[in-house]
Each structure stands twice: as C-alpha cells, then as structure tokens.
Design a protein that fits this description.
Aspartate Aminotransferase, domain 2; alpha/beta; transferase; pyridoxal phosphate; 7-stranded mixed sheet; 379 residues; 2 domains; Aspartate Aminotransferase, domain 1; aminotransferase; 14 helices; 43% helix; 5-stranded mixed sheet
Length: 379
C-alpha cells in the first residue's frame, strides 16, 4: 500500500501532519516583518526547550554542521581537548578536531558501554597547567543506544575551571532532560530531524557566556559558520544569511506542539517508550546491546546475528524502517528508534510486526510475549 512507510529509526523521525502542512505554506520574504515575528517566537521557544536564558542559534546545516561550528568558534589550532568516544558519533567529533589541527585525546570505551566519568576526572585533575581547553561528549550515542553520564562528567569539567564542555545532544535534546543552564553546559549542538520532529536541514547551538568569551580568542577562520554573525542577527530577530523559510515554518509549529505537551511529559513519554521497547526485546529472547542503567531514550540497539534479515523483512513485509549497525557492528545489531513524534501505538505496532518477523525467521520465543511485555511497560 502506498504512503504507509513508518520510520522507527533515530533520524529522520516521523513528521506530524500539522508540521507537514506548515512546511507546505507559501514562502514569505525572510527580511519581512512577518518573518521576523516568527523568528522571535522560535528563538523564545528554543530557549524554553534548551532550558536556558542564553542564545540558541539556528544554522542551515545538519547535526554534523552544528558539531563543526561548535568547534571552530570556540577553539584554536593546537588546543588540547578530551573527546569521549564510545560510538560512531564520538569518533566523528574526534575526527573533526583532528582535521582542524586540534590536539585530540580520546577517552574511550567499547561501543555499547557508557564512558567512565572517572577517566575524565583523572585526566582533568592531572592538568595542573590548565592546558585542556574543552571536553567533548556525545550525550546519547546513537550508534550503540547508549546514554553517557553527561551530568557527572560536566561536574568534573566545572571543577577544572578552564575547559569548556561541548555537548553533542543531537538525539538527547527533546528526548531526555538536558537542563543547559542548571548544569552550566557551554556549547550544545543538536539537529532538526530528531526530537524537533521536522525534516533534516537545521542545526542548533546553545552558547554560554563562558563560551562567548572563548569565541573572542578563537583563531580559526570562518565566514558562513561564524556564530558571532548569528548572535548579532538573533538580537534583531533576523538571520545573517538566507534561512530555509519553510523549515522555519515547520519548526515554529513543532515547537508549539512540544510546548503544549510540556517538557516533563515529553521526557516521560520517551522513557516509557524506551522501557517498553527494551522489555519487549528481552521477552522475545533478544539481547540488548546497552545496559539498562545507560539506555538511550532515543534508540534501542539489539544484538542478533540475523539483524539484516530482520530489517529487510520488516521493511518489505510491513513497510517499517529499522536502523542497522554502523562500522564494525554492521549486520550484528539493529536499532529501533523511539524518538520525536513516536507514540505508544507506534511501539506496540512495531513490536507486533517484529514478533511476526522473528517467527518467520525461526526465532523461538513465547507467542505474543513481546507485545504483552511492551503493553505492561506502557501502563
């Protein structure tokens, strides 16, 4: 059947009908007074979502673009940084640093295992000369379904005094409580196709006062990615360059929907969907890749030797997209996204189809055990 495709991946995520309609609105001039009012509303609601009084800047980039901007605006060539790596996106941060000539020290753990905050503490306390300029953390490591202990790591960064905390919150913002001001997070990057419930194309960066001071001494050349230009434009409810007008229409509508749901309800929903997905997988005899106490609320990674056969059957028979493993995990895990515009019904439907798929592929488990476990977790 046409138009029944269902995204159960960690991005892009499903887009609400109200947002789709907003995206189809006829464009208006991006320097007009009417568009300025839309920017003002978006800026206020982005601050609400980030739980910050500081600027949240919108860039015409993907999440990776926001990551790069979060580096080159606050650091300089030769700076020393610590980068947490326990998956694809932590490694991407390290690669970005190295491309720009930043002295990069990886603090690692196996994919599927959370980073150890004590390793950061040890490295930071040993830096008596205060040479470490930043600590970079991927909060929700999408490639492995792991949530890193950002709060504890950030406390150790704050005790250091000099270093910035730079956060990849691409799949945690809007799915998990990230109180930017309460935790004193300096640079937080995210992307539109995740918890924001709109298509790819916008990246977001919140910036603290401490980070803006570092901006003043950063020596990387930049033009389009110069966040100072975005800050100046933000103050006038404008943009430094031509924005994706229709994506902004969609963002305005999505943020309104999120406000009506409320932050606590959003976080509770994502945790409930996570619990249901994990309970169902366990009930069906599947192996969870990440531990319960470090489970991402955006995506659940499941280990099985027939991961690609499962994904293929789910797509061909039920038109449900699941994510695969990346790099060395390709074919060894599949990932179920439960991020953004996902409801209890979506998870129950996905688990039911997964049960049918597993049965077809010869898995041995108690019939309906997955849907029963998911339903019980959703109560």
């Amino acid at each position: 059947m046409e138009d029944k495709h269902m995204l159960m991946i960690p991005g892009p995520t499903p887009v609400p009908e109200k947002v789709l309609k907003a995206l189809g609105t006829h464009p208006i001039g991006h320097r007009s007074g009417d568009f300025s009012k839309i920017i003002a509303e978006i800026n206020d609601n982005l601050k609400w979502l980030h739980q910050t009084k500081n600027e949240v800047l919108s860039l015409n980039v993907s999440g990776t673009g926001a990551m790069e901007a979060g580096m080159i605006n606050f650091l300089s060539p030769g700076d020393r940084v610590l980068v947490g790596v326990n998956g694809k996106f932590g490694d991407r941060w390290a690669q970005i640093c190295e491309v720009f000539g930043i002295q990069t020290e990886r603090i690692t753990s196996d994919w599927g295992t959370p980073l150890d905050p004590e390793e950061f503490k040890t490295a930071l306390e040993a830096d008596t000369n205060k040479e470490i300029k930043a600590v970079v953390i991927t909060h929700s490591e999408t490639s492995a379904g792991v949530l890193n202990d950002l709060e504890t790591i950030n406390k150790y960064v704050k005790a250091h005094g000099e270093a910035l905390i730079i956060v990849d919150a691409v799949t945690s913002l809007g799915a998990y409580n990230v109180p930017v001001d309460d935790w004193g997070l300096d640079v937080v990057a995210s992307g539109s196709q995740k918890g924001y419930m709109i298509p790819p194309g916008l990246g977001f960066i919140s910036v603290s006062d401490k980070a803006w001071k570092a901006y003043e001494t950063s020596k990387f050349p930049r033009f389009y990615m110069d966040l100072g230009k975005y800050k100046k434009a933000n103050a006038k409810n404008s943009t430094p360059f031509t924005p994706p007008i229709n994506l902004m229409f969609g963002l305005q509508t999505a943020l309104q929907m999120m406000q009506r749901e409320g932050l606590e309800n959003i976080f509770t929903r994502h945790q409930r969907l996570t619990n249901a997905t994990r309970a169902a997988a366990t009930a069906m005899g599947l192996s969870l890749f990440a531990p319960d106490d470090a489970a991402s609320t955006a995506v659940t990674a499941i280990r099985t030797d027939d991961a690609e056969a499962i994904r293929t059957t789910m797509r061909q028979k039920y038109d449900i997209a699941l994510a695969g493993g990346q790099d060395h995990l390709k074919g060894k895990i599949f990932r179920v996204g439960h991020l953004g515009f996902i409801s209890d019904r979506d998870v129950i439907m996905t688990i039911g189809c997964l049960e049918a798929t597993l049965t077809e592929l010869g898995h041995d488990f108690e019939p309906k055990s997955g849907t029963k476990a998911a339903a019980a977790a959703l109560v």
